[in-house]
Write a structure and sequence with these properties.
- Keywords: Isomerase.
- Belongs to the PhzF family.
- GO terms for molecular function: isomerase activity.
- This is PhzF family phenazine biosynthesis protein.
- Pfam families: PhzC-PhzF.
- The protein has two domains: 132 residues, Diaminopimelate Epimerase, Chain A, domain 1; 122 residues, Diaminopimelate Epimerase, Chain A, domain 1, CATH 3.10.310.
- It has 269 residues and is an alpha+beta fold.
- The chain is globular.
- A hairpin with a 6-residue loop joins β12 and β13.
- The chain starts with a strand and ends with a strand.
- The strands form two sheets. It has a 15-stranded mixed sheet that branches. Strands 9-10 form a two-stranded antiparallel ribbon.
Length: 269
């Protein structure tokens, strides 16, 4: 039996027990897929991230480069934002404290976590939504009728007010039966926030995600165009809540926030 280090890191948070918690496992080498899935199931957070130092060119040039993979409790997924920010925080605070940035490379995307003053930023590919016909059963499953429903990787159900978003009480079992795996709901914000959102992914074993980076890869392009603003501030109205600073330049989405280590230890394998 061996022991593998594991952390729980709260992303898009300034203090423990806020933002979105992720399991974070730095590895010397990749574990078997079934072992990583078992760890993610045991941790039972919305995502657990595993990363291994790159070999070859990145390492030769002294670049902080890691291969990265993400697992939900039930399956592997191809891109996660908050867990990548959490992994970047661990690298920049513990593993390479003198570095200014770290590059994470997966089979689907390259993402970069950078120091930016008192915050970290996460550079991600956009998920630009396009308008679709509202799928049968979506409104009933959400418990509210959206004004329109564009989609990219997930549905983006738009409502008139922030109060409507906060008041939604979805039927998660019904949402899990829709063709796309998750539903983002959003409306214009009030006060200091440009928009508000929530994110439901019951088909992936996560009824409601606390603060989703991937959702903001869709939200940032949509609201940037709708509000004619490059830089925006979004508020996710989950129980834990979170604030994400966003920018979109028609090529990449940059999300800003902090992260905090709330637990560390080792898992026996």
């Amino acid at each position: 039996m061996t022991k593998t280090p594991i952390f729980i890191i709260d992303a898009f948070a300034d203090k423990p027990f806020h933002g979105n918690p992720a399991g974070v496992c730095p590895l010397d080498h990749w574990l078997p897929d079934e072992t990583m899935q078992a760890i993610a199931s045991e941790v039972n957070l919305s995502e657990t991230v595993f990363f291994v130092r790159c070999s070859g060119q990145g390492a030769d040039k002294g670049v902080q480069c890691y291969g990265i993979r993400w697992f939900m409790p039930t399956r592997e997924v191809d891109m996660i934002g908050h867990a990548t920010l959490a992994a970047g925080h661990l690298v920049l605070s513990r593993l390479a404290p003198l570095a200014q940035e770290v590059r994470f490379v997966s089979a689907s995307a390259t993402m970069v976590v950078r120091r930016n003053g008192t915050m970290l930023t996460l550079d991600m590919p956009p998920l630009v939504p396009t308008l679709i016909q509202t799928p049968d059963g979506l409104a009933k499953a959400l418990g509210g009728v959206p004004t329109q429903v564009p989609a990219s990787k997930h549905y983006l159900a738009l409502f008139e007010t922030a109060d409507e978003i906060a008041d939604l009480r979805p039927d998660f079992e019904a949402l899990a039966q829709l063709p796309l795996p998750a539903v983002i709901v959003s409306a214009r914000g009030t006060s200091e926030f440009d928009f508000v959102s929530r994110f439901f992914a019951p088909a992936n074993g996560v009824p409601e995600d606390a603060v989703s980076g991937v959702a903001h890869c869709c939200l940032a392009p949509f609201w940037s165009q709708a509000l004619d603003k490059r830089a925006l501030i979004g508020q996710q109205l989950s129980a834990r809540g979170g604030v994400i600073h966003c920018s979109y330049d028609n090529a990449r989405v940059v999300l800003g926030g902090n992260a905090v280590i709330s637990l560390e230890g080792a898992i026996s394998i």
